[in-house]
Write a structure and sequence with these properties.
FAD/NAD(P)-binding domain; disordered C terminus; D-Amino Acid Oxidase, Chain A, domain 2; 7-stranded mixed β-sheet; alpha/beta; globular; single chain; 3 domains; 10 helices
Length: 366
């Protein structure tokens, strides 16, 4: 009997498998797909996510990544950016990351069962392609539309907002070592350098009818840069949801990654959060107390969830967004402070009251 069964072999499930294996558990991962598993995402790993990968001993060759040193918001009339307070982020193709994590898990002795579907679940066993298999711990890592979550008693969850994402790669040399978030009245386009001659562009919108090519001309600073650049591969799409669960564990079953609740992709923190959750879940299983994971999960997601709500408030309120960006341009250091808080390098309590008041005044009078 495997001590730990993980349903879902994406990055969240593999991170959970690696952390659990390093904690001494016998681990098996089951996924109906076969590697490499890709997904429509911005393909940027933030510094806190890279720190978690290093703790997992996932080695990323420099030849496979393109470093970026900060985040920049770009709109028709305003641009504001900040460097990371510590370290850099990596732009990296999602399939390459999945391959490296798969290799790490296999080298540790994690049993990887690809093409195997978990079809049933009870308090102490799962059904895999019709066969019953008992477990000590079950981790559900089957994504934001998790079918297993619905069978654990941890559903329903509240979906706050659904948006639609599309990802495309352009064969063009990156023009900056920042991730750029371009804003328009129809959503955002995120530009991440992923190679010396390639950028990933992810478009996120709440308009189900709008497609990439129709939206691009509405981003006045981005469209001219991409004009004439070759499109690499196909454009793929996905749904991004803001979903909060009251509980992420019950008995001997726990949820991780987007199965445990998801943030809108606007935060860029999806992978980082899943990697951090993996360590806390392994420690909770070692202690035999999944309630410890529940508390840790709430702590890990608190600030990113708040930041997601703040950023989404700018999405379709053009006048307000321009006032905020104009104020951030004028208040030196404010955006740097926001980025540090978002990454956990600083706290809201670290922001001087005078700076907060000045920024608020500038937003009101921008």
């Amino acid at each position: 009997m495997p001590e730990v069964i993980i349903a879902g072999g994406g990055p969240a499930g593999l991170a959970a498998a690696i952390a659990a294996r390093r904690a001494g558990f016998d681990v098996s991962v089951y996924d109906s797909a076969r590697p490499p598993i890709d997904k429509a995402c911005g393909e940027g790993i933030m510094p806190d996510g890279l720190a978690a990968l290093r703790r997992l001993h996932v080695t990323i060759p420099q030849s496979l990544v393109c470093p970026f040193r900060g985040i920049r918001f770009v709109e028709d009339f305003h641009t504001v950016g900040a460097e990371f307070p510590e370290g850099v982020g990596y732009g990296m193709r999602r399939a390459l990351l999945h391959g490296l994590m798969t290799e790490t898990a296999a080298a540790l002795g994690v049993k990887l069962r690809w093409g195997a579907r978990v079809t049933g679940i009870s308090s102490d066993a799962v059904e895999i392609d019709g066969d019953r298999l008992a477990f000590r711990w079950l981790i559900c890592a089957d994504g934001q539309n998790s079918l297993l979550r619905k069978r654990t008693g941890l559903f329903p969850s509240k979906t706050m907002r659904l948006r639609y994402g599309f990802r495309r790669h352009y064969r063009i040399a990156p023009w900056t070592d920042f991730v750029e978030v371009h804003w328009s009245d129809c959503g955002q386009m995120y530009v991440t350098p992923v190679a010396h001659d390639q950028v990933c562009v992810a478009f996120i919108t709440d308009d189900l009818r709008l497609r990439f090519d129709a939206a691009l001309p509405r981003f006045s600073k981005l469209a001219p840069r991409l004009r004439g650049a070759d499109i690499e591969g196909t454009t793929i799409g996905a749904v991004t949801a803001s979903r909060h669960l009251r509980r992420v564990q019950s008995g001997r079953i726990a949820l991780i990654g987007e199965a445990a609740g998801s943030l809108d992709a606007i935060t860029g923190e999806g992978l980082s959060l899943a990697f951090q959750q993996a360590f806390e879940l392994a420690a909770a299983m070692r202690a035999g107390r999944l309630d410890l994971y529940q508390r840790a999960h709430q702590r890990i997601t608190r600030v990113p969830r708040t930041m997601s709500r703040l950023l989404l408030s700018l999405d379709r309120r053009q006048k307000f967004r321009r006032r905020v960006l104009r104020a951030l341009e004028r208040e030196s250091g404010a955006f740097d402070q926001m980025l540090a808080i978002h990454l956990g390098s600083a706290s809201v309590r670290d922001v001087p009251l005078t700076q907060a008041l000045r920024l608020g005044w500038k937003i009101m009078h921008a």
